[in-house]
Amino acid sequence: MARITSTALPATPHASGGAESCPLCGGPNECQLCSTAAYKGPCWCASVNIPEELLARVPAESRKRACICQECVTGFHRKRVEGKLPPILPGDFYFEHGLMVFTAAFLRRRGYCCENNCRHCPYHEPGT
Prior knowledge:
By secondary structure, the protein is an alpha+beta fold. The protein is 17% helix and 6% strand.
């Protein structure tokens, strides 16, 4: 799985990349369903909220033909919530060895992966 290194979204969409390329940035979308691999298991996007506002940026000729990559989805969420986190509710965290550990429910509500290897991250499969 590609590491997310940028929060910027591309200036112009890429419509010519094919099913395995992100229609927004042209990079690999890492989609299990779009890949040519024999294993068609669960995809990273199954546990991510992809807002309609981001889907609307996909060129018409690429809609329902190519998936947006994780970097573009995360960049969109980060830009949208800059400085704003969802409220922390009772049960969203616990303390272990003096450290605050967020639950998967809170991390899912936040809407993106922070790439800090959170224990309960709903955006990565165990061991990745």
